[in-house]
Amino acid sequence: MSTDNYLRFIWEGCLRNERKYQELLYKVLSPKMMAVCMRYAKDKDEAQDIMQEGFIKIFKNLGNYRNEGSLEGWIRHIMVNTAITRYRKAKSMVLVDDFGENDTLSGSAYNNNTLETADLMNLIQQLPDSYRSVFNMYAIEGYSHQEIGNSLGISELLSRTTLCRARGILKTRLSKLQVREQHCLAG
Asked: Can you tell me the distance from the alpha carbon of 27 to that of 31, in angstroms, rounded to the nearest whole number?
């Protein structure tokens, strides 16, 4: 049975409100959905909260999936929207000009001049909430600046500016990582 067929089989059980299928859907998709939520969260605890909220929305709105497109894609979309909604409730959009010279890059691991996925995730998670949300929505999820603006309640120009600043911060921090790595390898 293919993965898509297996998910459809599980989904049919969820539509019948059978708890074992809901648990199975959670077990099958939670690792992938956790990865999505981690991109929007400050830490693992917040990501787990977002994921839980997302699955609650999914189980409350089972009938809203119209069998158009990928079921996993529909669930992923709900997770992203849950993260965005949580962000909007928590803070208004504020641009931050200065992060200080002593920003730490904690938890970074290096392996023979290669930057690991965990290092990149760590750098993205260190971005301020507004920067992280816009960066993820544009660079990873593929939203347009107009869609980001509509979702976050900001102008398209502010979305573009925020993305530019987020990229600048990430470039600076990546440069610092490279300098540190070169220093460690030389010393």
From this structure: 8
Cβ contact 90:82 at 8 Å: no
Q: ∠ at Cα 173 (171, 175), nearest 5°?
A: 70
Using only C-alpha atoms, the chain has a radius of gyration, in whole angstroms, of 19
CA gap 17, 19 in Å, rounded: 6
| Alpha-carbon distances of 178 from 111, 112, 164, 183, rounded to whole Å | 12, 11, 21, 8
Residues 79-109: tens digit of each pLDDT: 999 998 888 777 654 444 444 433 444 443 3
Backbone angles phi, psi at 28, to 5 degrees: -70, -40
List CB contacts of 131: < 8 A, sequence separation 6 or more. Answer: 96, 162, 165, 166, 169
Angle at 14 (CA atoms; ends 9, 15), nearest 5 degrees = 95
Spell out where the chain has E strands. 110-111, 114-115
- Asked if residue 159 lies in contact with residue 152, where contact means CB atoms within 8 angstroms, the answer is yes
pTM of the model: 0.66
DSSP 138: I
